[in-house]
Amino acid sequence: MKYRKLGRTGLKVSEISLGSWLTYGNTVEKETAIRTIDQAYELGINFFDTANVYARGEAEKVVGEALRKYPRESYVLATKVFWPMGDGPNDRGLSRKHVYEQANASLKRLGLDYVDIYYCHRHDPETPIDETLRTIEDLVRQGKVLYVGVSEWTAAQIVEALRVADRYLLDRIVVNQPCYNMFNRYIEPEIIPLSQREGISQVVFSPLAQGVLTGKYKVGEKLPEGSRASNPKLSSIIQRYMDEELLRKVEKLNGIAQELGISMAQLAIAWVLRQENVASAIVGASRPEQIVENAKASGIELSDDVLAKIEEILA
Questions:
Q1: Does residue 91 fall inside a structural domain?
Q2: Cβ neighbours of residue 71 under 8 Å, at least 6 residues apart?
Q3: Which pTM value belongs to this model?
Q4: CB 237 within 8 A of CB 228
Q5: Which residues pair with 181 in a beta bridge?
Q6: Each residue of 184-210: pLDDT tens digit?
Q7: Residue partners of 10: CB distance under 8 A and separation at least 6
Q8: Residue 238 domain-assigned (yes or no)
Q9: Domain count, the chain
Q10: How confident is the model at residue 153 (pLDDT cuts 50, 70, 90)?
């Protein structure tokens, strides 16, 4: 496993990280989830991602239980705040009240004294940025949070947050968590150049486009049993990628992977990691063998010729 620095910090995270969205505490049994997390740890993955809203706190409980057996200094753990955690008017967003209460609730569910990274899961137009950043600064000073992050913020929103942090001498954002894969490249024109200038890393989710870039979905063929697309609870999330044109591109990309002697999933993850500004790619795994396969993408370097062939297919 290879490691990269997170933004302008001294923190090093594994190129492959394990996420818990849609899986742990939800569609995957707890015992299987814990075995998968254990497998990831054994492979050298030191970066684990969760959120309070994942299965309404259940994912945090599973991840916390699985990691508790390991030395706290041996792994990096991230969680998030923003989405509704109740029906009340203050049970959502990035207000001081919600952020403070949810940070403490997350720590209780995780069974930990602190989290390494605390993400603002989305931008909150109803709360001043200085209110949110001051609250997280308080959590940093209390030793409950080490680094500040955001997820799916626009370049303009990140710039505003940096301006406010500098004005009031608050902890700066050092990591952004966007969606990024071969079929979703919106961060390339503005967010990556901005982040490179400001010392912010990308920790990307959905590098496999919800599983489409594994190559398991074929044009005209029945959906594989147990797949995300065949699950009525999850199929709506993957629909944007279940397009015949995209699936035919995956077939061509798979040909490149076969020439290189790697899997389609490994090619897709290696392509994401070609970006120096990407510190880690978050993968989801419902079984230990899946994380073993995905972890092999760490360290794969794609030549300029291969990248040109991929670009031609994607174009």
A1: yes
A2: none
A3: 0.93
A4: yes
A5: 184
A6: 999 999 999 999 999 999 999 999 998
A7: none
A8: no
A9: 1
A10: very high
